[in-house]
Write a structure and sequence with these properties.
By secondary structure, this protein is of the alpha/beta class. The chain has eight helices and nine strands. The chain has one domain: 3-Layer(aba) Sandwich (Rossmann fold). Bound molecules: adenosine-5'-triphosphate (ATP). It comes from Thalassospira povalilytica.
Length: about 230
């Protein structure tokens, strides 16, 4: 039974404190849905969870080990789907999936690609170059990618953007199948996705006004006067 948790996380983007004091916990088969207004930090949190962005404070652990101690090992266990579909325009859909599969060192790649194309109902597009795909078809291709190779954790940033209503149902079904195999899914969405009993993590509850945060962390206040001794250091 895998265990993925974060404690007392603070995230800074640029000079802005996005959220603070955020904790979460998930075990095999769990789903967490991230909610919050635009700019609340859902994408930032997913990037922190993926180890692509370091938190300003707090830590994230997989089975008790800080993910930053072994970023490569963490990335091998997860599939991250960001806003960008990252579909190469000159490669066919099949070759895009082949490239991703090769990067993950997948063995039976052709078999896995066929299964992923079927699951996303894009077999008919397998020889079409990325540049000719519609935005929904690109999103389906990106979703097919997360099915290739073994993974224990899906981090999905608005997975249904650009998809028609029927495809949203397919995404919910894929999530259910992954959870049934023991996977952990954390996703952001602005629509209601038919996922069974996800834990809701509302980022709006963790927004901290900058001024309040600077009072707790005066060392981060670039506008505060510093002593002559500190200036000399
Ligand atoms: N690369 C970056 N550099 C600096 N600030 C950033 C960067 N990316 C995002 N931000 C800022 O971080 C904050 C959180 O953005 P984020 O994209 O995580 O929010 P979100 O909840 O996913 O928003 P949305 O619902 O609009 O997708 C925003 O204020 C944004 O301007």
């Amino acid at each position: 039974m895998a265990d993925f948790s974060g404690s007392d996380l603070t995230c800074l983007r640029g000079e802005r404190l996005v959220f603070g004091g955020l904790s979460f916990a998930a075990r095999s088969g769990d789903a967490i849905v991230l909610r919050g207004r635009n700019g609340a930090g859902k994408s930032s949190l997913l990037r922190v969870m993926a180890g692509l962005l370091s938190p300003r404070a707090g830590q994230i652990c997989w089975d008790g080990e800080n993910i930053l101690e072994d970023r490569i090992g963490h990335q091998a266990r997860l599939q991250y789907l960001g806003h960008q579909d990252a579909v190469k325009p000159v490669l066919s859909v099949r070759d895009n999936l082949r490239l991703w599969g090769q990067m993950r060192g997948v063995d039976d790649l052709d078999g896995e690609i066929d299964a992923a194309l079927d699951a996303l109902d894009i077999h008919h597009l397998s020889r079409v170059a990325g540049r000719y795909l519609s935005s929904g078809q690109k999103r389906r291709t990106a979703l097919a990618r997360i099915l290739i190779g073994q993974s224990d954790l899906w981090l999905l940033d608005e997975p249904t953007v650009g998809l028609d209503r029927e495809s949203c149902g397919e995404v919910a079904r894929l999530i259910a199948e992954f959870r049934a195999r023991g996977g952990i899914v954390i996703y952001s969405t602005h629509i209601d996705l038919d996922v069974d009993a996800p834990t809701v993590l509302d980022l709006d509850e963790f927004a901290i006004p900058m001024v309040e945060w600077l009072m707790e962390h005066p060392e981060m206040d670039g506008s505060a006067p510093i002593s002559a001794q500190e200036a000399a250091q």
